Amino acid sequence: MTALEPETLRVLTTGDGSPTLQRVDTGWTYRSDRGALRESAHVFVAGADLRGRAHVRVLELGFGVGTNFAALVVAARAGGIDSLDVHAVERSPVPSALLPVFDAQAHALAVAAAAHGHAAAHGVSLTLHPGEFEAHAPQGVFDAVWLDPFGPDAEPESWSVDVAKVVARALAPGGRAVTYSAAGWVRRNLAAAGLFVATVPGPIEGKREFTIAAHTPERLGSVKVRNAPR
Ligand SMILES: C[S@@+](CC[C@H](N)C(=O)[O-])C[C@H]1O[C@@H](n2cnc3c(N)ncnc32)[C@H](O)[C@@H]1O
Asked: Would you say residue 147 lies in a domain?
């Protein structure tokens, strides 16, 4: 695992006014430049469909700058979720001093977890696992699994069948996996790992479609299954 040097990153303000970081060498952004926080709230939090769950466990593959985590903390505080237990895997941590502040509580937890591996306060717990998705052994099962590397063309190894198997293994029987990519081969890899897969509309002005997956077609809701386990 290699922590990133501060000079390899630059701050961008995205379309909804929220910040993200960009890798200087490749130009990759950690969230959509059209609206970082809006993308996290729409794709990862709403896409996970956590309604009716008071105690929520989430596994995130790719902690990045903690945008999804912050959007989840904000949603939990807004109502309905009493406790959050978030585990995140990351091979290239961003220096704490550069983690954007989307939300004070989420930011404090992200900084403390970066220093100690784990942090918890006011019903929210965050555990950071340094390392590769492929090698991750999930601790229990999760209501949502977020697959969130950089794009399939940028980091193809992080969208492999082996990674999809980690997603499937970590996902609770009634859980939802979510990823922002709707690429056909990404969907097929999730299906090859044993999941039912569908695409749903993305945020306005953002990506056209994103992907949800589950152990049963019913858990996908009323949308059409596009890829089934084989
Ligand atoms: C798009 S960013 C994640 C954005 C983040 N979820 C957020 O909300 O701010 C992708 C992250 O996944 C990490 N990553 C990509 N492939 C990985 C792998 N195979 N193992 C571990 N980390 C990986 C990258 O280092 C990067 O930090």
From this structure: yes
User: For the range 151-157, what are the long-range contacts, defined as Cβ-Cβ under 8 Å and sequence gap of 24 or more?
Assistant: 151/28, 151/181, 152/181, 152/183, 152/185, 152/186, 154/26, 154/28
Residue 167, token pair as written in the block: 């997603």
In tens, the pLDDT along 79-90 reads 889 999 999 999
160 lines ligand 1 (CB under 6 A): no
Q: How far is the CA of 222 from the centre of ligand 1 (A)?
A: 30
CATH code for the domain of 77: 3.40.50.150
Ligand 1 contact via 125 beta carbon (within 6 Å) = no
How much is the average pLDDT of 180-197?
A: 97
On whether residue 191 sits in a domain, the answer given is yes
Residue 181 lies in a domain: yes
- Ligand 1 pocket member 150 (CB < 6 A): yes
Ligand 1 centroid–CA 28 distance in Å is 11
Domain range for 91: 35-220
